UniProtKB/TrEMBL annotation:
Cellular compartments annotated: Membrane
Location (main, coarse): membrane
Topology of this chain in the membrane: Multi-pass membrane protein
InterPro entries to which the protein is assigned, alphabetical: AA-Vitamin_Transporters, EamA_dom, EmrE-like
Protein species of origin: Herbaspirillum lusitanum
UniProt name for this protein: DMT family transporter
Transmembrane segments: 38-56, 68-89, 95-113, 120-137, 149-169, 181-199, 211-235, 242-261, 267-284
One Pfam entry name: EamA
Keyword Protein biosynthesis: no
Classification of source organism: Bacteria, Pseudomonadati, Pseudomonadota, Betaproteobacteria, Burkholderiales
Domain EamA: 4-135, 152-283
Assigned keywords, A-Z: Membrane, Transmembrane, Transmembrane helix
UniProt family annotation: Belongs to the EamA transporter family.
Amino acid sequence: MPSSIFYGVLVALIWGAQPVVSRYGFQLGLNAADATLVRYLASGLLMLPYAWRRGLGDACGLGWRKGLCLFLLSGPLFSLILIGGVSYAPASHGALIHPALVPLFGALISRFGLRRQERFSLISMGLLLAGLLLIGGDSLMDGHALASGAWRGDLLFVLSALMWALYMVLNKSWNTRPLDVVALVQVLSLSYVLPYLLLHGMHAFEHPPGLLVLQAFYHGVLVSVVGVALFNWVVSRLGVKALMFNALSPLFGVALSSLLLQESLKPSLLMGAALIVAGLVWSLRGARQAPQTQS
């Protein structure tokens, strides 16, 4: 297997398992505020030397207006919302709703917000929306899920997808360097530590050390730094074909939520997952073909 394909699949696995690891932490008592602290302590300190070399005075070359905007969209607030979603809804919902809505929101923001003539497929949008309706309908029709507030988690996943889509569109519009953005956001996120300590004290560190290390390593190192760096490397080797690996993330997330968290996979959820993956593949197929039509 070529190394580019191997690392592309690895990135999809890392990102697909993110809600599963978050849900596992929640089940052991780690709330969204605690998990966010542990995440950014790890990633912020890890990326501080790189950000320092790039120059914090001008926000790693981004400029503070752009830097602060991207920080608000992808920093601690984003983490609180995304991880907060698994406090209510199953990890499988997060593994499906978030990646399904990012391309939808991204296309709408780019087309109607920035007035860019982005190509998007009505077929892929229809498939994604159909899958989302099946999953959302399951949360509303299932009495247990409704009583547990799963719909609240689904709404938080929707909000996180909107924030991430805007973050991605702005990065593309501003032609930023991905690693510079990651470094700046992680370092600025260290500002979350002080308000957390004032409000919650040392509560996060009362959890088992193994749980804290897992969350810090997975979210702070694998998701925030390694995943981004690997994905950029895969893109440099495969071009837009690398986007196809994004369609694997929901499959990994759903499978791991069942295997590791013993979440039940209802027929409606499986049908929704199939529709969402089909929609992602269809939309990414269009992205892969676009350069060919322009040459």
